């Protein structure tokens, strides 16, 4: 009875400890030192009317990146503002294969321009590659920004098929783009920071010892029954 109790306690405790996630992440870009190339390269796209480094909406380090898309004149539509070229940033693919999630922080301040149609602005993430095609789009109502409320951390999880398409060695292009999906009118200026791929939860070192103890308990039960 005592052995059974110890086995159950050890197994449950090991499970609890293993659930503790690691805090590290693979940094894609935090825009420090007025730099778009370190640790990996992020570039702006053609539908950006202006961009600059800024101290607004900083969540990591001392700088964010300010981007204002070209004004939309006909209907709502996506404006893709930052591109991550995976072929020139090969370290990103293994990180996504280990944990297929991208996170980034966005701040959209409130201003006094009544023509700004900010209420319908949503985050957009697209993964596109030659072998995988146009493989990702997201702009649901749950991603509305609360303007003036500080930075919003946005997270998108890619499917296994998307990751396989991005990682295909036959690709002549493979990229992830970040942007907004907005209503017509003057587009909101967004401040991006801390683009990263979080590290998947891993067992803490103590959990390995607990798993060993649980295994010993299991063997002990088996011998007793035998």
UniProtKB/TrEMBL annotation:
Keywords: Signal
Protein name (Swiss-Prot/TrEMBL): Ice-binding protein C-terminal domain-containing protein
Lineage per the UniProt record: Bacteria, Pseudomonadati, Planctomycetota, Planctomycetia, Pirellulales
Annotated Ice-binding protein C-terminal domain residues: 201-225
InterPro entries with a match to the protein in the record: Ice-binding_C (IPR013424)
Pfam families for this protein: PEP-CTERM
Signal peptide location: 1-24
Native organism: Adhaeretor mobilis
Ranges in coiled-coil conformation: none
